[in-house]
Amino acid sequence: MPAVAIVGLDCAFPGAPDPEAYWDLLMRGAEAVGPIPEQRWDPREVAGGSRGAMTQGGFLAAPDVFDNAFFAIAPREAAAMDPQQRLLLQCAWRALEDAGRAPRSLTGQGVGVFVGTMGSEWAQLHLPDHTRVNAQFGVGSTVAMAANRISHHLGLTGPSLVVDTACSSSLVAVHLAVNSLLSGECDLALAGGANLVLTPSLGVVYGHLGLASAQGRCLPFGAEADGIVRSDGVGLVALRRLDDALADQQPVYAVIRGTAVNQDGRSNGITAPNPWAQQAVLESAYRRAGVTPDQIRFVETHGTGTVLGDMLEVRALGLVHGIERELPCAIGSVKGNLGHAEGAAGIAGLIKTALSLRHRMVPATRFGHQENPQLRLADRGLSLLKAPLRLGGQEVLAGVSSFGIGGTNAHVVLASAPRPEPVRRPRRVDGPVGCGVFTLTADTPEALRRNLTAAAEAIGRRPRGEAAPLCWSSNRVKTGLAYRAAVVAGDTVELAEKLRAAAEDELLRAGVAVRPGRGPVTVFLFSGEGAACAGMTARLYAEHEVYRRLLGEADAALGPYLGVGVRDLLLAGDERAARGPLARPAQFAVGYALAGTLRELGVHPAGVLGHGVGEYAAAVHAGALDLDAAARLLAAHALPERGDFASVARTVTPAAPALPFASTLYGRLLVDEQLDAAYWSAQAFTAVHFHEAFAALNAALTPSHVVEIGARIDLLDQLAGADLAEGGRLLSASPEPGAGAAALADLVAELYLAGLDPAWEACYPAEHRTLERLLPYAFSAETRYWKRSWASSQPAPAAAPAAAGAPRTIAQSLVMAAQQVDPVTRLVIEAVREVGAYEADRVTPATRLYQDLGFDSVMLMQLKDVLEARMPQMADISVQQLLPALHSVATIAEFLNEWITVQVAAPSLPGRS
């Protein structure tokens, strides 16, 4: 079958909150099993008569932590959600980032979500108490929501489903995701599973089935193995068809070559394993992968550590792998480290194997030195990994098994990733190598500082190297959220230092969120001859391929008319480019190329103004002159002996500017005038009205950013006292003649912070546009939700209607409104806070219900109920009447105030009793 690539992943397992920690735990051979945390249950409640009562397990350190505000989920809903759903939401975001995709960029795309889980113990805890059930707990305990919430909150429109095949659930989810990709049903898929041990019930069931470990640990294939111990876990992989991943140059952890799923059928009891079915699922997976058993170097087994389960699994493996082969097939099981993660067990093994193939090393099996001799592993062509197994440089094949207690078996064949072609980067001798703009976005200023700090620490641990590939990767992955940060750096050491400094920047604490669609209003000022100098922009030419190409275009246009190449003069530092007849054409070429470079970077001017010769470049970029016409005019002006200027100007056919064009000839914006022969003849020999022209442009457009286009700062110095818009900025594309790509990067970074979405593709040469894995988003750990928050998660009782004579009647409220803060707005704020259980500072009149608070139809109905309880007269308002007002707190209050006014005035109308 065609191959599928694992392009991203994220996970959290006992003792390992992220993939890096997971790999470290595996390589250390550590065990993450420990006592039952207090927040789960009291072990004494199930001690004594309960057979197999758990005393140990593998538990996540902070399963109650959830950054609900990031996903615009109300605190009340977050408290009602199954923690598995919360963990999967954050895991999905981080896995997509790890795959080199900005999750918000996937909104509306057919991305599939396939989640395996063994039901919801959260539902067992909360739904039986009917007196406390509400809409949020009903939805939050529904198993299907484990996948559906990911699709909903990220706006993904592909297949979205939950699989429950007991212990094989998450690997079956991967199988379904692979098939969905190969059928063309989706082009990107998230697959994996989650498991949380919230009650002792299943542990007691295991005890009655004879599966629970009396010693409280899993010893896969061990001589003292006596059963399983339960554990938490969550993990997701991001999958793409291999050809697509390679075409996009995505880093690949490992390749899925084949998958298979089958069932035990009628065996010796529904919970008893069937070795022949296990044999068949391995053979089916190998056939689909197009491989033979002797090619499989190691298998991550189901390996629960139960006496019967281990024996039958080894028998099945031996039937397949007990053939003549150069080396025995190595086997292992992560359950020795974590315990049995049940619905997440398969994804734990898959991620372990993918990391092993990436690192070219298979960790030893915990307790592997205690191998059970009765299993006769060597006779069956198998070896239990007692020490890490180094993998060679050639392609390596591995298998992952996961078997469900009800008989559903799954196996996945993995291969090491194809080795990428080495990136050949040209040697640069001028200036810094690999300069780029590193970007980060977050949902709050505090989150931005947190992620800047985390990124600085992660990049600081890297060896010194070019920053550009990391910057390019951040532009693709770390964008899309409201609060922005951007720093320019040439190498990783500089980048880490600047990120640390940005995290401490006081201005960040007062940062303003950038709303979608609100970018900067930028105008271009094209310098005149005063900015010309020898060797101007030579460094930029060496460092920026877009500028190189555009300066070449200008040179090619000017050359036939000048008889000399201005580009050669600039690069040679020839004084003729700074003074004399060739200075104007040289300055035009620089202005044309600089402005064109910015436009290709995504900086499009709202208006233009040119000083002296700068007006030619302004006219070209406004669409009033073509490049050839500008070249002929400039050549005639520079070399009058080759033609009286006026006659050349008469051959130029002008067009109306496509942008507001501030004329320094008239000192105002052009209205009906043409940039014709008369204009250019007068422009060449008339005083420049620069300040008047800029005042007109500034009044018409109110620009937020004024950018000088020239080889150095000249015009901006003359605007130091200009009446700019509040916060208006004066910027330069080249602040000094020797400026290079870093200056352009600084400019792009500043405009990005103001809301520009640059064309990042043009910011980097091809050799730097390579994806690097970055530290995934660091979510807030400040908010926690667990079953003990049940009482606080219930809606507070509605306030009783005001007693007769109390100052809460509509008429009295209107009087209060005239005297102090609008009481209706205050009432709406209180109602919104009550419905969502928000903190006081989270809800203001400007707060938007959908975008800021994540309101849905259920919460809107609850809001109406709460408002009616406090304003009984609202019962006359239908939902249809209220819907248009449900934009923000202020719009609801405005609607209610208008409605109140009508109600107060209504009794005095004719015909009313």
From TrEMBL:
GO terms for molecular function: 3-oxoacyl-[acyl-carrier-protein] synthase activity; fatty acid synthase activity. Keywords: Acyltransferase, Antibiotic biosynthesis, Phosphopantetheine, Phosphoprotein, Transferase. Residues 1-416 form the Ketosynthase family 3 (KS3) domain. GO terms for cellular component: cytoplasm; plasma membrane. InterPro entries: Ac_transferase_dom_sf (IPR001227), ACP-like_sf (IPR036736), Acyl_transferase_dom (IPR014043), Acyl_Trfase/lysoPLipase (IPR016035), Ketoacyl_synth_AS (IPR018201), Ketoacyl_synth_C (IPR014031), Ketoacyl_synth_N (IPR014030), PKS_assoc (IPR032821). Residues 822-900 form the Carrier domain. It holds the Pfam family KAsynt_C_assoc. The keyword Membrane does not apply. Transmembrane segments: none annotated. CDD domains: PKS. GO terms for biological process: antibiotic biosynthetic process; DIM/DIP cell wall layer assembly; fatty acid biosynthetic process. The keyword Chloroplast does not apply. This is Polyketide synthase. It comes from Streptomyces tateyamensis.
